[in-house]
Design goal:
about 300 residues; 3 domains; 6 strands; about 45% helix; about 10% strand; elongated; SWIM-type domain-containing protein
């Protein structure tokens, strides 16, 4: 049975329940994004403090966890009777950066499908990093950490413990990375859908280009983009007469990649081979004397 999520929905009141790490032994992080997130801390911090911070998170507790756009705060108790308040401030993306993110996701059906289905994609992180946009911090110093303990080193054991707690949050909900930079997944999804509607269903008379399928030379047949991206366009595909177009291209890009290429492109490349194979099979049947005799008999009996 899946463990009940112990943090609260962004924007609600903080919780006072005392929690400790699920991971009681070994490294923290089950998924690739969490491992990368933890490595940002561990590549920078002093090993002794990190070990004590992990011990604190496993044997002490965290409470009053609060999430908001660009920030996380919680209480961390390692010793004594009162928890120390710890804060982590992540760089909130500017309007221009969010526009780049929305544009990138909108024009890549694989990324759109990942966003809608909730499957956190490595392609999303890597594609944005090529544009110098880091969902997972590229360096510990890009996050501002606050703790009022007497340790003058950053990260101290309390900040390290808070980082490990946050890592386990991301293990269960990697889309919290969006919130840590200023926007929820739902907000991003709505903007992507609004942008797609504008791009693929432009207002008559506007200068907005029609869908990318037109730019790629694919005939307009309603809006096939919804097939792979799961967006209901409310339109039905219909047959395009006198056009030699691979059917898979009418469905738009797939939300998956195979060997570095979009799955739709991979499948489209198989059509010539399948057509040639079908013709060879048909030709072989016609040339086979046994099959030809059967065909003649069937024709005779049918007269």
């Amino acid at each position: 049975m899946k463990r009940k999520i112990w943090w609260q929905i962004p924007g609600t009141l903080p919780i006072s329940k005392k929690i400790s790490l699920q991971s009681q032994h070994g490294p923290v992080g089950k998924n690739w994004w969490t491992i990368r997130f933890v490595s940002v801390l561990e590549d920078y911090g002093e090993n002794g403090r990190l070990s004590r911070g992990k011990h604190c998170a496993r044997n002490g507790f965290g409470n009053n966890i609060r999430f908001g756009p660009g920030e996380v705060s919680m209480g961390i108790l390692c010793t004594g009777s009162s928890a120390r308040p710890v804060g982590l401030l992540f760089p909130r993306f500017s309007t221009e950066v969010w526009e780049t993110i929305i544009d990138t996701i909108t024009h890549d059906a694989a990324l759109t499908g990942s966003l809608i289905t909730g499957e956190f994609s490595r392609d999303l992180v890597d594609t944005l990093e090529k544009k110098e946009i880091f969902l997972i911090p590229d360096h510990y110093r890009s996050v501002r950490a606050f703790c009022h303990c007497s340790d003058d080193q950053n990260p101290c054991i309390h900040v390290a413990a808070a980082w490990y707690f946050l890592a386990e949050v991301l293990d269960e909900d990697p889309w919290m990375l969006f919130l840590l930079h200023g926007m929820t997944r739902e907000e991003v999804m709505k903007r992507v859908q609004d942008f797609r509607n504008l791009v693929f269903h432009p207002v008559p008379g506007s200068d907005t280009k029609e869908g990318t399928e037109q730019e790629a030379g694919i005939p307009k047949v309603g809006d096939p983009q919804g097939f792979f991206s799961c967006i209901d366009t409310g339109e039905t595909l219909y047959q395009v007469p006198e056009r030699n177009v691979s059917p898979i291209l009418l469905l738009g890009p797939a939300p998956y990649r195979l060997g570095g290429k979009n799955l739709g492109e991979r499948i489209e490349g198989l059509y010539p081979a399948m057509s040639a194979y079908a013709e060879s099979v048909l030709f072989g049947i016609k040339q086979n004397p046994v099959n030809q005799k059967i065909s003649e008999n069937c024709s005779f009996e049918g007269k």
